[in-house]
Amino acid sequence: xxxxxxxxxxxxxxxxxxxxxxxxxxxxxxxxxxxxxxxxxxxxxxxxxxxxxxxxxxxxxxxxxxxxxxxxxxxxxxxxxxxxxxxxxxxxxxxxxxxxxxxxxxxxxxxxxxxxxxxxxxxxxxxxxxxxxxxxxxxxxxxxxxxxxxxxxxxxxxxxxxxxxxxxxxxxxxxxxxxxxxxxxxxxxxxxxxxxxxxxxxxxxxxxxxxxxxxxxxxxxxxxxxxxxxxxxxxxxxxxxxxxxxxxxxxxxxxxxxxxxxxxxxxxxxxxxxxxxxxxxxxxxxxxxxxxxxxxxxxxxxxxxxxxxxxxxxxxxxxxxxxxxxxxxxxxxxxxxxxxxxxxxxxxxxxxxxxxxxxxxxxxxxxxxxxxxxxxxxxxxxxxxxxxxxxxxxxxxxxxxxxxxx
Length: 406
Ligand code: PMP
Hints:
This protein has 14 helices and 17 strands. The chain is of the alpha/beta class and 406 residues long. The protein binds 4'-deoxy-4'-aminopyridoxal-5'-phosphate.
């Protein structure tokens, strides 16, 4: 492993060195999407420059090379999340696509009266597909409440579980609060009740080691763009047996074994769920991004991100009128806060003018905002390439902004 040196790491990310409004960019919106290392940019560039071809169908050299690269990326993902089989890794368009796939296809196996449990801190993409499914199939949707500190009410969760529960779909880490949920415990409880579990890994894949076999989750979904890869690509992991039981998602090329007008048979995993020409370089560059991340010292990254989190929270608590939303015991490097009497959007706008990118608003978690009785928050979400010096600049800019708005 390469020793962790944040300045060396920053050199790998060209976007971090640009200016915004004449100020050095401070990028604290990693929860929305991460910046890309040069190696990922180079992979994409090289593919379109000299390696472009369609996959899984060509006899020619370029097609075979592209197919090999795509399938090698699948194996990189497999190793990264510790899946048992490479065909349990389905390339998707992203987290949202993965959840919709499961809602559509696993949803086909459910019948009226069955129940799905989600939580009160889910991203809209882990709420709406279940609402649509429940309406279509006459299922019941139940919601695990969120406690005042931003943790899930686990006692209430146990009460919600019953024989009728067929699926529990929860986020590993809240994109809004930073809460790390005890998903292993949730998975065990759900399995005891006979339910399957989908873990939304959109915010965990980039912050902690993932072992889907140890977790024993039935599905795990993530987006490449939040883990230093390209947009438009993501992964659905599913256990082989369940994926085999599920009907296909979309129909088209690649997902078939044989087509006649009388009857079509479907391809085996993973291709059954990958209709049409995929985002080829998206898949390949996902492999590059995960390979890059694995080459770094994970413990050092974790320590650095935790330092950024603690430092930011401590200093924010000293700032008059600031309230941190989400004070769970287990948190990742996400800090959401509000400032008395000032709209989050106004703070975000003034920070932007000082070169600092944060996110403001409901973060696609409107029910969670309602739960806390607030319209939105200002959110800083750190990646391992952020620094304490950047946090210092941010805190000064925040104080200046509050002063101007008061
Ligand atoms: N779930 C969580 C927890 C997220 O943070 C996000 C992205 N903000 C999503 C789902 C949706 O991801 P995407 O938009 O990449 O599909």
